[in-house]
Amino acid sequence: MDGPQDTTTHTHETVTIDEEMLQQKERTLGPDHPETLAARGDVAYTYWVNGRIAEAIEIEEQVLADCERILGAEDPATLVARSNLASSYWSEGRRDEATTMEEEVLAASERVLGYDHETTITTRSNLAVSYWALDRREEAIALQEQVVAASERTADREDEEALITAREQLLGSYWSAGMNEKAIALEEAVLAALTEANGPDDLEVLNARATLASSYRTAGRADEARELQRQLIADLSRVIGPNHPGTVAAVKTFINSDGGAPHGAVPDGGTPAAGPADPGPADPSPADGGGADGGAAAA
After folding, report:
1. pTM over 0.85, yes/no
2. Could you give the dihedral angle defined by the CA atoms of residues 174, 177, 178 and 181, in that order, rounded to the nearest 10 degrees?
3. For the stretch 139-174, what's the b/e string if a residue is b when 16 or more beta carbons lie within 10 angstroms of its beta carbon?
4. How far apart, in whole angstroms, are the C-alpha atoms of residue 82 and residue 71?
5. Which one of 65, 147, 163, 272 is at 20 to 30 Å from 129 when CA atoms are compared?
6. What confidence tens digit (pLDDT) does each residue in 220-260 have?
């Protein structure tokens, strides 16, 4: 797990400001006030991004101890402090300690905040990343499946980025672990949900179909891939037009994978009957797995 990455905005000046703010909080509110504890955590963060890792960890350890003493071991602020310290431990190579702390944070978050709380879901996702880095792949995938399920239950149609990210991460893990059929089953479920929500002619739906056709080919399901690609070509010809660059890309994919052009296609310099645009959507699977090589409908 990586620590904070933005080193451009947390300059020496920022460190000084945070230190001064902490001193002010200590004078006006006292050393044990929750705002003082938060300000101390801010100083630790700015130390971290400025490379003062040992000092940051020392402060984070004290913040955690103070939060446990003042607020209790399972107060949300204490959970944040423990999570921050775990991230710093991880970045310093103290992986076993960091992972144990992440497990503790997740268990407490589930009890205190709820299984489907946004913070709990994020904590579960972070622990999955740690498990994967430790080559505990089965445990990582199990957590990622829980993250997707929870995200599906809580997703807001106006802000589905978390759900999209969770699905992409799970797909990547499935492909990396050689769990091709599980990856395809998830892609099929995503396609069905998108089709129901957006309609069959939506460009995102067409992209998802192109990705699924590619995954079928990767998994050796050539007949299903061929039929899905053929249907996709016909629909794209109708939706975006036979002369669209996406049409050309889709037909070329069909020819390269099938050995022949669909009826009406003109593969060499002419206008094919239909097809998805190239490149396709962001590949939800890793390089050694499936992915959208079948083209995708350009906007």
Report:
1. no
2. -30
3. ebbebbbbbbebbeeeeeeeeeebbeebbbbbbbbb
4. 13
5. 65
6. 999 999 999 999 999 989 998 888 888 778 888 888 876 45
C-beta atoms surrounding 27 within 10 Å: 10
Q: Give how far Cα 276 sits from Cα of 93, 176, 234, 279, Å.
A: 45, 26, 10, 9
Pull the structure tokens for residue 116.
């489907």
C-alpha 191/C-alpha 37 separation (Å) is: 46
In order of 68, 208, 210, 225, the CA distances from 205 in angstroms are 49, 5, 9, 16
Indicate the residue type of 292: A
pLDDT tens-place string over residues 104-138: 999 999 999 999 999 999 999 999 999 999 999 99
* Domains of the chain as residue ranges with CATH: 1-154 (1.25.40.10), 160-299 (1.25.40.10)
What pLDDT shows up at residue 283?
Answer: 35
User: What do you get for the CA distance between the two ends of the chain, in Å?
Assistant: 35
For residues 279 and 183, give the distance between their C-alpha atoms in angstroms, rounded to a whole number: 21
